[in-house]
UniProtKB/TrEMBL annotation:
This is Peptidase. It comes from the Archaea. It comes from Halococcus salifodinae DSM 8989. The keyword Cytoplasm does not apply. Signal peptide: none annotated. GO terms for molecular function: aminopeptidase activity; metal ion binding. It holds the Pfam family Peptidase_M42.
Length: 358
């Protein structure tokens, strides 16, 4: 069953639902274990699309329309996190990374350990400056430890190697920004869901795909590229916004508040020129704020669809985000709305007759 779009906004200028965005970002779901996020996405897609299904990897696909030409819109559900690799006799946890962490941001953080018998809270320890040596080793994922506040025997009874660990943080509005953990890529999952709600009777078949295991190698999108074999694919992800002190303008990649970012390249993909040009022309025609994205390093689900089942035209929209892969990732309300608006306009005007071949 289809329903009307949400009308609850973080700002009267934007018609999106902060409660759903908060629910998505605060919930936990590391690569391969996206179960809790999948439930939210299935619930929302059930309201916004005609049919919803999942696959053996855990990808969720909501489909609307019945045209011969098919388009996939993809955003990944997983967030970077950890798996417990060892519990010491003294009750401290040692971790194995799931995704790309900068170890510098780990010290003195609160975490949540997800066990078969419920969640536990812990802190990643950091030695006091009063006792640090000048030559103390830089932190690595392998040498950080989680303190549960439990003795060794109890910790070993309650935690098992293989249990999952995620960062603990609330999602907040901060001026014109939204900040919290896992905006990568839940803010784009949210944008995709909102576009699904706004889209009405498309001329083509649209598959809204929430993918898994992007943070460990774009694995879910690669599987869907084969299973869905779309005629066109557009992926959504966050991108670097280094528009903060300490970086010159050439290092910004994108800037918060300047609009949705239309990707030209990253280290995994060069988007199809005819696709990104149509996105740019459409944004200009509709008065939607936008900027070009040229990302020196990093990959997205876009690459998972480009050639996994033969050549497929691909495009990508990105939401500029500061402080990526930390618990204070920050995006601008206006850029979120611009991404939703451009994606919706792109799907409303996709007839299946555009020639994207080169």
């Amino acid at each position: 069953m289809r329903t009307e779009p949400h009308a609850v906004g973080v700002n009267p200028d934007y018609a999106f639902d902060l409660d759903i965005l908060t629910e998505l970002t605060e919930e936990s779901g590391v690569p391969g274990y996206e179960d809790a996020i999948r439930e939210i996405v299935e619930r929302e897609l059930d309201d916004a699309t005609d049919e919803v299904h999942t696959d053996a990897m855990g990808n969720v696909v909501g489909t609307v329309g019945d045209g011969d030409y098919s388009v996939v819109i993809a955003a990944h559900m997983d967030e970077i996190g950890f798996m417990v690799r060892h519990v010491t006799d003294d009750g401290f946890l040692r971790l194995d990374a799931l995704g790309g962490w900068d170890p510098r941001v780990l010290r003195a953080q609160r975490v949540r350990i997800h066990t078969d018998n419920g969640d536990l809270r812990g802190v990643i320890g950091s030695t006091t400056p009063h006792t640090q040596d000048d030559d103390e080793a830089e932190p690595t994922v392998e040498n950080v430890h989680v303190d549960l506040g439990l003795d060794g025997e109890t910790a070993n009874e309650r935690v098992t190697p293989g249990d999952l660990v995620t960062m603990e943080q609330t999602t907040e509005s901060l001026g014109e920004h939204i900040t919290g953990k896992a905006l990568d890529d839940r803010v784009c999952v949210f944008a995709m869901l909102e576009a699904a709600r706004r889209l009405d009777d498309p001329d083509v078949t649209v598959h809204f795909a929430a993918t898994v295991q992007e943070e460990v190698g774009i694995r879910g999108a690669q599987a869907l590229g084969v299973d869905l074999d779309p005629d066109l694919a557009v992926a959504l992800d966050v991108t670097v916004a280094n528009d903060v002190p300490g970086f010159d303008e050439a290092e910004h990649v994108t800037e918060l508040g300047a609009g949705t970012a239309i990707k030209l390249k990253d280290s995994s993909v060069i988007t199809t020129p005819k696709v990104h040009r149509r996105l740019q022309d459409l944004a200009a025609d509709r008065g939607i704020d936008h900027q070009r994205e040229i990302l020196p390093a990093g990959g997205t689900d876009t690459a998972g669809f480009q050639n996994t089942n033969g050549a497929t035209p691909v495009g990508a929209l990105s939401i500029p985000t500061r402080y990526l892969h930390t618990v204070t990732e920050s995006a601008h309300h206006a850029d979120i709305e611009a991404t939703i608006s451009l994606l919706t306009a792109f799907l409303e005007t996709e007839t299946g007759t555009h020639n994207y071949t080169l």
